[in-house]
Backbone:
């Protein structure tokens, strides 16, 4: 349907993935997945809604558009394999935007072994829009859902939280490698990537699992970026800021303790931040008291 | 990433497809394809570029957005299985638009046994945009590419051509059933769906196959819609109008003859319209003379 054919562009791309047999000049790409199960996710990013193209430039936008999808595969403990990309390009500067976007995507695709096998490139009178669909295969323990947390499980999180608006929301590294590495050492009962903010996303695990979670205020790893906001609400930022793109996951206490003791994730630190409890909902334990925390996200009038 | 979560919506959808195990409330859907190979295609439709939402309404737009993807699966001789859908909705009237779009999509998805397993729904200040990624499995003879035509092959086409702007470009039935039925009776060497216009699309088969095609002017099935345009250029319309969404395919003369004799496709008539020749390029045979036809599409100054 596009004026110029993105699929032609990938003719020159090195696809380091033997699952991809064709996908050039045809109406579909043909994939030959090695795994019996396929993960699929899709995310659309819109200029003026999720970013301002004129401020951040097309390279970072292209990178982020792929990175948010990679983070969804990571959240399932999966390994990304294949992507298709659709673009709506403003007529003015369409080629330069497309080239920047692909530059940003390709670097990340190569880093994570993703083959971009096709897409649909259009120009129009509207603002820039990009939609990526990413396929993956499950990791060693199979797809890790949101719904498997058990009462008594420890909640662990990778990295540090809050203040991602400073830089990380664009330049984060999706936790694909970490999600896979974890499965050599434990069997996560439930996992999610933190895109809506810690409280909101742990709320999703709680709801899907049919239990609740207590978060320990003094154990939440607050990022330097959250402290640097210097507004006296660093913990709020760690609880409620979106787009940290870290992983939160529930494991047995024994496995959680072993992970904390061994810290197996190279440069990414694991922290124990909460506990799965039978009471539905989210709770914050702070200064010896336990208070309800709205599952929809942290409210500032709550502190 | 969306303000409201499309995946919640499909919780109430009947998914008549045992390949889909989950996909509700998680970061990815998990598919269990039965076939070793997976087809994947994606198309984005943009308000003001591919349609005018205010004129045609969201139901027909939703239907078409899925139908163009179904047509790409049909072009490979495949059977569609699973779709994900991303929407950018203008803030004003977002809910009504989304509901109309899903209504149009769901009707067609049900007709073709497609499970819509997830997506990403956003609002923004731009015009309406929809991007669908569709997966499928190959038909009985495997994926049918554009590149397999052999010299001497007959070129056949389903249905009638031209004038789709009148109505058919929105309300066409993708030739999925026909593409599959054909494979009970022949082994197409190459196939494509006619989205860019007959001349342009046969040009793709010619180029990918490394040969050329002669089209027989008096054998091309011109649609009533092309005649109804009543501009004395009905053949031009059949050769150059886009969005017929019929199938063109190359078969051996023996198989072609049998298909013409048996007309096995219920209400969809097959016509023999051309021949694969060793000379690269496209040619039109008319009134006993053979003239080159630009492979990029029929030019009106050519007649």
Residues:
């Amino acid at each position: 349907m596009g004026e110029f054919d993105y699929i032609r562009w990938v003719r020159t791309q090195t696809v380091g993935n033997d699952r991809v047999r064709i996908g050039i000049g045809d109406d579909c790409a043909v994939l030959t997945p090695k795994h019996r199960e396929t993960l699929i996710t899709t995310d659309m990013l819109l200029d003026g809604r999720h970013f301002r193209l004129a401020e951040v430039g097309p390279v970072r936008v292209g990178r982020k558009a792929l990175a948010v999808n990679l983070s969804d595969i990571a959240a399932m403990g999966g390994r990304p394999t294949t992507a298709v990309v659709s673009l709506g390009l403003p007529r003015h500067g369409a080629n330069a935007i497309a080239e920047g976007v692909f530059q940003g995507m390709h670097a990340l695709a190569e880093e994570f072994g993703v083959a971009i096998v096709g897409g649909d490139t259009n120009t129009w009178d509207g603002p820039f829009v990009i939609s990526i669909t990413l396929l993956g295969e499950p990791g060693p323990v199979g797809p890790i859902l949101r719904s498997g947390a058990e009462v008594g499980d420890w909640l662990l999180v990778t990295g540090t939280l809050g203040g991602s608006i400073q830089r990380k929301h664009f330049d984060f590294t999706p936790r694909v490698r970490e999600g896979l590495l974890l499965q050599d050492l434990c069997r996560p009962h439930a996992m999610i990537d933190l895109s809506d903010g810690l409280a909101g996303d742990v709320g999703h695990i709680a709801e899907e699992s049919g239990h609740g979670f207590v978060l320990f205020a003094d154990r939440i790893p607050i990022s330097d970026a959250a402290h640097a906001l210097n507004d006296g609400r660093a913990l709020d930022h760690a609880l409620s800021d979106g787009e940290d793109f870290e992983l939160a996951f529930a494991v047995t206490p024994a496995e959680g303790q072993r992970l904390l003791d061994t810290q197996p994730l190279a440069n990414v630190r694991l922290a124990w931040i909460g506990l799965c409890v039978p009471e539905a909902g989210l709770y914050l334990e702070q200064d010896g008291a336990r208070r309800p925390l709205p599952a929809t996200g942290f409210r500032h009038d709550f502190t």
Notes: The radius of gyration of chain B is 20 Å. Chain B has two domains: 6-137, 154-302. Residues 154-302 of chain B form a domain with the Phosphoribosyl-aminoimidazole Synthetase; Chain A, domain 2 fold (CATH 3.90.650.10). Chain B touches chain A through 66 residues (CB under 8 Å).
